[in-house]
């Protein structure tokens, strides 16, 4: 119950200002771009047929998008409660997209093993894990309001957890190229 009141308050603030801020907020644009690149990676994942190149290209696109987001975030001043509220919806959408992608990736582990490309996916996921954690931490540390940071943390922790679980799926003992 204690959590419901802050979430309701933040949702109200978010709904009030999101239409004005979201299109002008560079961080919201970055988060939306990451979500869009994850959509493309999901399409490549679902259509994987043994040819790893489309997946590699889509993963490289996600990495580049996150790195661009890192540059934008690094140059952004601290994030106020008002600005953080405008990020809530894009972060929720990103979190949901990451969950869908995780399920789809999990369903393709055996296919990657058969194609003998575990090492390739492991390397891409390792990089995604690193740059993703860095961007998440940078954004969280830029939020000046402890209240807003506490609201964001469950979503960011969820995304970090999905990154780690994805990497674990292709860990050396679980995904072996010599299937």
UniProtKB/TrEMBL annotation:
Keywords: Signal
Name the record gives this protein: Cell wall galactomannoprotein
Signal sequence bounds: 1-18
InterPro entries per the UniProt record, alphabetical: Cell_wall_mannoprotein_1
Highest taxon listed in the record's lineage: Eukaryota
